[in-house]
Amino acid sequence: MSSQKIPPLTYKIIAECSVSKARAGIMSLCHSDVETPVFMPVGTTGTLKGVLPDQLIDLDCKILLSNTYHLGLRPGIDILEKAGGLHKFMAWPRALLTDSGGFQMVSLLKLAEIDENGVNFRSPFDNSECMLTPEHSIQIQNVIGADIIMQLDDVVKTTTTGPRVEEAMHRTIRWVDRCSEAHSRDEEQSLFPIVQGGLDPELRKQCVAGLLERRVRGYAVGGLSGGESKDDFWRTVNICTDLLPKDKPRYLMGVGFAADLVVCVALGIDMFDCVFPTRTARFGCALVISGQLNLKQKKYALDMRPIDEECECSTCKTYTRSYLHHIVTVEPVACSLLTVHNISFQLRLMGQMRSAIEKNEFPKFVQEFMIKHFGNDPIPKWITEAMASINIQLLEDKDLMNENDLTLRN
């Protein structure tokens, strides 16, 4: 009697918020089980700047993101294939997700030409030309060996309007089929299609309908967090999560600000990635519940407290704001120290949300988070409207909630 093969991705919902669309789950991948909602730190070329894989394991990071376009250029698929894939090459034993390279259509637009065949890039390193087709993107990702791989999609700037948006949406659906046909490691790697359609609700609905006809293990929502209004942002996310199936993970690409993460978990998103926590560390900024501490400011010169007194990361356990003030943007080690803390902050925030969902206390968590995050400033209207749409009412008068009653735990 033959044994049934275990798929390379299974997703189980552990708990659901009784009020909003938030849910907590476990996504089982070949290299690790990943609790959702989850934030994926970005190691574009197979590394987080200044942080070792062992440090990420100490932070209990279960999954990283790397980029197909950049890895395809350097070190290239020949070296990655000889190394046995990116996991072995970078000594990372846990899960990986790779972006397809489609985002570079926007970020490197001056270096790219797009047609039905694919994207013709000019290398920023040596000016050589590289044609990235759906098939070649999947070939690179098959060699990289990531647990989750992304289709090549036709990406346009979020504020684009007119026929180009519809063209990109339909092309994205066509390219899914080319990616699926080229995918040679389906028993080990799960291919996610990407919902496109700009800020047009009808195009987003059409795209979801087209993707639902394909057999896949999860879905990504792309083409956001690129300059659109926050009102358009949350409404587009909300439309997509209303239509995407509940039994498969939903990944919102390129989102990492704390308030955005909380809002989008409430709207039903499970997975996130963003360069923000690592990039802002390089500029001397540390993430805290109220936003950021710019440690370059003179007011921290004599501050002997840790970045966050409730944070358990190695940076907060060992170093003061004063010490960090004197080395940020000057000594390379400061980048490492702040990156460790910022990644810890993001992962703790996701853990807090998972815990609140499991206890069916998520609406209370959202209320308390927003009060601590915005302090004396008013909560932005787009957030109150987004939360009201899924039955979470935010307190307009913050005096109604006594500071001593806040239960937001680190």
Please name the CATH topology of the largest domain.
Answer: TIM Barrel
Average pLDDT, rounded to a whole number, is 93
- CATH top level label of the largest domain: Alpha Beta
Total strand count, please? 17
Shape-level CATH architecture of the largest domain = Alpha-Beta Barrel
Largest sheet: 5 strands, parallel
* CATH level-4 homologous superfamily of the largest domain: Queuine tRNA-ribosyltransferase-like
Question: What proportion strand?
Answer: 15-25%
SS summary, helix count: 16
Instruction: Please state the structural category.
Output: alpha/beta
Low-confidence stretches: 402-410
Overall radius of gyration? 21 Å
Shape: globular
Neighbour order of strands in the largest sheet: 4-15-14-13-12
Summarize, please.
Helix content is 40%, strand content 18%.
Explain the layout of strands and helices.
Layout lengths: L8 E8 L6 E7 L3 E4 L1 E4 L11 H6 L4 E5 H6 L3 H7 L2 H5 L4 E5 L4 H4 L4 E4 L2 E5 L6 E4 L1 H11 L3 E3 L12 H20 L7 E3 L1 E2 L5 H12 L6 E3 L8 H14 L6 E3 L5 H9 L4 E4 L1 H7 L2 E4 L2 E4 L19 H5 L2 H7 L4 H27 L3 H13 L6 H9 L21
Parallel strand pairs: 4-15, 5-6, 6-10, 10-11, 12-13, 13-14, 14-15
Antiparallel strand pairs: 1-2, 2-3, 7-8, 8-9, 16-17
Helix pairs in contact: 6-7, 7-8, 8-9, 10-14, 10-15, 11-14, 14-15
Description of the structure:
The structure is a single chain. A five-stranded parallel beta sheet has the order 4-15-14-13-12. The protein has 410 residues and is an alpha/beta fold. The protein folds into two domains: 9-275, Queuine tRNA-ribosyltransferase-like (TIM Barrel, Alpha-Beta Barrel), CATH 3.20.20; 282-382, no CATH class. It is globular, with a radius of gyration of 21 Å. The protein has helices spanning 53-58, 68-73, 77-83, 86-90, 104-107, 134-144, 163-182, 201-212, 230-243, 258-266, 276-282, 314-318, 321-327, 332-358, 362-374, 381-389, and strands at residues 9-16, 23-29, 33-36, 38-41, 63-67, 95-99, 112-115, 118-122, 129-132, 148-150, 190-192, 194-195, 219-221, 250-252, 271-274, 285-288, 291-294. A hairpin with a 3-residue loop joins β2 (23-29) and β3 (33-36). α8 (201-212) packs parallel to α9 (230-243).
